[in-house]
Design the sequence.
């Protein structure tokens, strides 16, 4: 095949971009791990990393000696120059905001939280979050001089559906707030950095997909709490849907004649598998439980009503997840929410029901597991989104534009805490 | 924000790539259409297109006078130089193979079909397809000298699940063949061009998503025929899933106690909404129909049994599509298969059932419509896959590597039929 001139330079640039992207998405890795992820030979990869090291685009951060099992020579771990970038994750909950800041090698540099009331308006929440960010400068010396991106998680669908008529008032009269306007602008103006905003359950799905060393490209995530939320990762990307509502597994109809749901329909999964629905079902069968702690006690005592209610709810959840699995063929299904930690029967029952609803071949069945990150780890999900979407790669030094040079290899995370010029 | 040197060139290159990608994916368009799709101002776009025209990467193919409604000055339509690339779509059905060849402006240059028996082995089907391709050279003068990519659609899941134990034998003993190995290699070796192979129902989903001027990024496609197949487009990309099974809506369980399905489960959607299932249900209710033509007659006579059976099957289909819609939030749901053309009640009933299963807001409801492309248009789907995935863009002329120049503007589709050097 004829190769136009310049094609070799393009191929090399493409290889470099894949290496840098792998480091950005996964943090520090050995050459072997990088080679496996980007699908290059060790020889080609060594040429690429040598060039990137020489130009200061990446650095050697440590060896994998401490993580390595067994013997063998420890391998150097490479990373984007930690000082070359900072990433911020912000998670707005109904009653608090969490902030974490990480460097380019994915090490957490600083984190903190501020509480507020669940009636606090968005403008005030945003101001509290920005004040928290300033406090991290004072307390941890983080100056955001190389901030590459900010991920912000918010409760509720994002972007909010047109007309903002969803979600409706609940039967008890509580009105759920639509996703906030202005929070992205406030952060972008303060830091002059790109901002990604998304639903925090969806960001949690992304964090689960890339957590640990066994990251997956296709994942279905569902979280049981006051409601039932969800998020999808398809082909390595978070799915938003055409109007920001993708992943709303909690509002799949499981019984058209079922109980009214706060969304205005009847018989949604949420009316069966949310924490309040499960507690209410226990009451109905004669086991009065006030909260999750009571439920945990009942589970610990192997109370038959709690077991039956949990199995039934998880069975219904399993059928919904089963349909989603036939639709999306994920490698992994993750069930989140504190209740799944307290009641392991949920994950077991979902796996059993799901298995019966799939093609009768083992190869199509996803791993079903409880969430690794807790509900409080939302800011990690927001960070994951920026690791995946930062524009950093468009600006890494080209061959003609070497910065730092070999000296940059000695950069440490402290180096990042410099004042914006 | 500090801008490293070279960043302006990178920004321009990014803009150019977006323009070229839009033209590759959509074929010829006016500057106004391009500006809308890539999100650039008319001024910036004009600079970009002027540079690309000057370098011969794109050409003016015609004006939109013939397509334009109302008055106003006709706009020039721009396209990748038609002679710069050819794309081939190949659709293997159970009893025939279709081939179409298009140029870079998406005009069909040649097409043809060859029949075979449904017991014909894959090796022979591949040979017949390659012979058909040669015949197009003789009959239509197409020489594949600038072939950029080949899309191949095959029946059944692709890639085939591990162990190839799916699909199983049907109750009547027919064994469905797994997707072929070797067909991709045979085409790649013959043409020295990249080959994309995928399930042909999935490729049809992509073709529906990008058909017409109202292309959508998120689509759920389901096709009713001897079985029930499906395909998903999410965020503009075709979804494969972790083991090639994404989009198998026909095997979502709708009744765990239902009829045995050829996949080995019970009560799959396919046992209710496939053409054989619908015909069998008509028999059960006293309306003996042999085939789709009989069903079309019954529908034309408004036979109450046919109407009831179709509504019930479509209602079940609507619930499955409703769950998929809550999961994926698509902009459009497309129901394919000849039966949907014969019985419009199917699409109407799916839309009604689906509507009841969604959030009670209009903004979240997808358009539901019958497929635009027929079952015989599979090769168009295969072409769509290469338009979206061709490596052409990595090789378009850089500023330093001008080819063709202004003279290339006069190229026509005939110019593409040159012999490989």
Sequence:
């Amino acid at each position: 095949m004829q190769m136009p001139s310049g094609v070799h330079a393009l191929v090399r640039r493409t290889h470099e971009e894949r290496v840098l992207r792998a480091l950005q998405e996964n943090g520090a890795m050995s050459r072997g791990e990088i080679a496996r992820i980007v699908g290059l030979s060790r020889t080609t990869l060594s040429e690429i990393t040598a060039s990137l090291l020489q130009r200061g685009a990446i650095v050697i951060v440590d060896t994998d000696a401490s993580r390595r099992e067994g013997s063998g020579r420890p391998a150097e771990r490479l990373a984007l120059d930690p000082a070359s970038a900072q990433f911020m994750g912000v998670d707005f909950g109904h009653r608090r905001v969490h902030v974490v800041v990480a460097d380019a090698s994915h090490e957490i540099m600083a984190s903190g939280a501020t509480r507020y009331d669940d009636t606090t308006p968005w403008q005030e929440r945003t101001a509290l979050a920005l004040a928290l960010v300033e406090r991290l400068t004072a307390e941890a010396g983080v100056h955001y001089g190389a901030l590459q991106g900010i991920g912000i998680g918010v409760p509720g669908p994002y972007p909010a559906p047109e007309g903002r008529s969803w979600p409706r008032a609940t039967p008890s009269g509580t009105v759920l707030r639509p996703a906030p306007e202005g929070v992205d602008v406030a952060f972008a103006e303060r830091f002059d950095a790109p901002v990604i905003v998304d639903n925090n359950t969806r960001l949690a799905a992304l964090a689960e997909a890339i957590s640990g060393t066994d990251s997956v490209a296709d994942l279905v995530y569902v979280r049981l709490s006051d409601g039932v939320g969800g998020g999808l990762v398809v082909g390595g990307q978070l799915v938003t849907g055409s109007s920001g509502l993708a992943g709303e597994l909690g509002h799949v109809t499981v019984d058209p004649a079922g109980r009214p749901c706060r969304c205005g329909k009847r018989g949604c999964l949420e009316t069966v598998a949310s924490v309040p629905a499960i507690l209410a079902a226990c009451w109905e069968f004669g086991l009065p439980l006030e909260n999750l702690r009571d439920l945990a006690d009942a589970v610990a005592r192997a109370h038959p009503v709690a077991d039956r209610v949990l199995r039934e709810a998880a069975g219904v959840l399993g059928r919904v997840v089963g349909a989603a699995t036939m639709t999306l063929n994920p490698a992994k299904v993750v069930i989140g929410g504190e209740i799944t930690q307290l009641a392991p029967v949920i994950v077991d029952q979902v796996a059993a029901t799901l298995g019966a609803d799939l093609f009768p071949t083992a190869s199509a069945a996803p791993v079903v597991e409880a969430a690794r990150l807790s509900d409080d780890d939302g800011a990690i999900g927001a960070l994951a989104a920026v690791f995946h979407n930062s524009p950093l790669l468009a600006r890494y030094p080209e061959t003609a534009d070497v910065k730092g040079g070999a000296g940059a290899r000695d950069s440490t995370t402290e180096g990042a805490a410099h004042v914006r010029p």
In short: The first helix of chain B runs from residue 7 to 26.
